[in-house]
Amino acid sequence: MSGKTLYDKLWDSHVVTDRPDGSSLIYIDRHMLHEVTSPQAFEGLRIAGRKPWRIDANLATVDHNVPTTGRESGVEGIADPISRTQVQTLDQNCNEFGIVEYGMNDKRQGIVHVIGPEQGATLPGMTVVCGDSHTSTHGAFGALAHGIGTSEVEHVLATQCLVQKKSKNMLIQVDGELKPGITGKDVMLAIIGTIGTAGGTGYAIEYAGSAIRSLSMEARMTICNMSIEAGARAGMVAVDDKTIDYVRGRPMAPKGEMWDRAVEAWRDLKSDPDAEFDKVVHLDAADIEPQVSWGTSPEMVTNIGGRVPNPANESDPIKREGMERALKYMGLKADTPMTDIRLDRVFIGSCTNARIEDLRQAAAIVKGHKVAPSLKQAMVVPGSGMVKAQAEQEGLDKVFLEAGFEWREPGCSMCLGMNPDQLGEGEHCASTSNRNFEGRQGFGGRTHLVNPAMAAAAAINGHFVDISDFYSKAG
Amino acid sequence: MKAFTKHTGLVAPLDRSNVDTDMIIPKQFLKSIKRTGFGPNLFDELRYLDSGEPGKDNSQRPLNPDFVLNQSRYQGASVLLARANFGCGSSREHAPWALEDFGFRAIIAPSFADIFYNNCFKNGLLPLVIDEKEVDELFKSVEAVEGYSVTVDLESQTVSTPDGKTYSFEVDEFRKHCLLNGLDDIGVTLEDADSIRAYETRRRQEAPWLFPAG
Ligand code: SF4
């Protein structure tokens, strides 16, 4: 019999019972909540007269709706009454059920997928779920983490379990050395460009290979974060020293003797050498260039040195039509060099790229320069209050402010524009977020997905530029 | 939850692949704390020519005449015919809520995104997969014949068409059982409460750091 994959191990250690139809009841160690996908779940509990099964497994925060400026007057001060109600509803629900919540003005507040790892609420070997598709982020810790719908949020609250069918195993192996300045974001966009947005459907993906090992935990989180953009609910990376070093000392991480026991168990969180995968994809790290998306799906992506593709060269009629529609929406002509695309706004933020390393990479590019006068706005939205405080301690806020960026309070912000941070119709935005869907960042808005340094360089130049020179000089 | 056994209804063809949940129900409508009332804003950006906001009177908004659900021949449709990877993107359950609220009971596509697929079953909405060629065939028939209705039978796992064709589809036993009977799956899971407790006791021994509160 062949060995087990990391996913097999995580799955097996969480099966409560197997059901006759092939589904299983899976135990959930960590449940994260935010204001958008939870109100109907709490309401369901109340209607059925149920209580949460295990209160200490839950952790909540507000992130999607919260304003990123003017928080002095607290929740009462949220201008949009519907957003305010949603934020207040989470506060009330957490109070009523005794769930820990980092409220809007708590310094630990932030995007749910940033604060879990930051607080040590996400640990290796856990099952982590949240009513949010980017829960896959937490898989970077050798955890089984995926998004769920609101009915499942209610199910987890009431039973601490989920009914699941096991996914298939996919291995994405990225070997070799990444060029200087190539980030987790570029690796992931290149993967999605290769396998497509449905490439991972039905699979749990493990990212492995020397290039993945060489990346920091934060870069691994960026990669796992966008597993859902590749169609997979869950993505993960095996535990190594970097994982353990990152978790050590976090507020909710185990301490003392318990820490040692935990670490011993975590060392086994990797695929056995003889494990078999249902699908294996190889990428050569050395081939990966800085990526920029040109269309309305994350697979519509190319190298910074590339051009907007020409639908006439596409033989599949459904794909061709999709490309034509995307170009029309994006207001782009086929064969335009990516570096010719003029930008209106730049957004550095989101659960994909708003951790401290992301801000450092962007600041390194920005330092000593000014945002191009042709831009309407360039903003930096840290992923959490802790990231913001750390950045301010390092003086990064000054670098951004002096260059003409806005420096905001933490939250999802323009990643999806549920709060006032939105694109106007027809505006092009260089964004470090994860989705370039039609209307995602605002009605008629045109999103280009890039890494933080590329977004920073685009802000300074008013259009996309290849930043490889910067890194080769810095060498 | 509404049970689903057999449903006959008019088919509306949505001819594009990778329809994401942002498209099914845009973010500004997710601010509601209710499960209902999303139907009027289903496919908001495709359906209307202006930008929609919660509370806006939809009857006053300019409709996009090219959008399939605005065409008179598809009024009253309750079966949606779609292309590959339908429901990709965000996990928002507001997407099936909106489809259901609009009046859809079943969605036929060659493939669905996982989370969306799962969410449908929790809301009495049946997502069913038939293969690409068959979907193509259906698109042609639906577009050719006005008033084209199909019958979706969950018990026998078939879709039958007016021209006498029958397509079969797969569905998990457990999901089928819950949907046929309109069962609340929390209730079903809680029948296993003893197994959950036994798991916790064992796990607390093996991995006590996962139970910090003791
Ligand atoms: S930052 Fe964007 S993708 Fe991440 S949780 Fe918030 S809205 Fe979702």
Give structural attributes.
heterodimer; A: 475 residues; alpha/beta; Aconitase, domain 3; five-stranded parallel beta sheet; B: 214 residues; Aconitase, domain 4; 31% helix; 14% strand; binds iron/sulfur cluster
CATH superfamily of chain B: Aconitase, domain 4
Task: Report low-confidence residues of chain B grouped into runs of 5 or more.
Answer: none
Please count the helical segments of chain A: 16
CATH fold-type name of the largest domain in chain A:
Aconitase, domain 3
What structural class do helix, strand and pairing data of chain B support? alpha/beta
Structural class of the secondary structure composition of chain A? alpha/beta
Quaternary organization: heterodimer
Assign the CATH architecture of chain B.
Alpha-Beta Barrel
Q: Total number of helical segments of chain B?
A: 8
The whole-number mean of residue pLDDT values of chain A reads: 96
Topology order of chain B in helix (H) and strand (E) letters: EHHEHEHEHEEEHHH
Mean pLDDT of chain B: 95
Biggest chain pair interface:
A-B, 80 and 62 residues
Largest sheet of chain A: 5 strands, parallel
Pfam family, one (chain B): Aconitase_C
Domain Aconitase A/isopropylmalate dehydratase small subunit swivel (chain B): 1-132
InterPro entries (chain B): 3-IsopropMal_deHydase_ssu, Aconitase/3IPM_dehydase_swvl, AconitaseA/IPMdHydase_ssu_swvl, IPMI_Swivel, LeuD
Catalytic activity (chain B): (2R,3S)-3-isopropylmalate = (2S)-2-isopropylmalate
Structure description:
- The complex is a heterodimer of chains A (475) and B (214).
- Chain A has 16 helices and 19 strands.
- Chain A has 475 residues and is an alpha/beta fold.
- In chain A, the strands form five sheets. Chain A has a five-stranded parallel sheet. Chain A has a five-stranded parallel sheet with strand order 17-16-15-18-19. A four-stranded parallel sheet of chain A has the order 11-10-9-12.
- In chain A, strand 13 (291-293) and strand 14 (301-303) form a beta hairpin.
- In chain A, helix 2 packs across helix 5 (150-159), helix 6 packs parallel to helix 8 (217-225) and helix 12 (356-366) packs across helix 14 (396-403).
- Chain B has one domain (6-170): Alpha-Beta Barrel (Aconitase, domain 4).
- Chain B has eight helices and seven strands.
- Chain B starts with 5 loop residues before the first strand and ends in an 8-residue tail after the last helix.
- The mean pLDDT of chain B is 95.
- The interface between A and B is large, with 80 and 62 residues.
- The site of iron/sulfur cluster (SF4) has 13 residues of chain A, from loops.
- Iron/sulfur cluster binds at residues 63-64, 111, 113, 132, 134, 350-351, 412, 415-416, 433-434 of chain A.
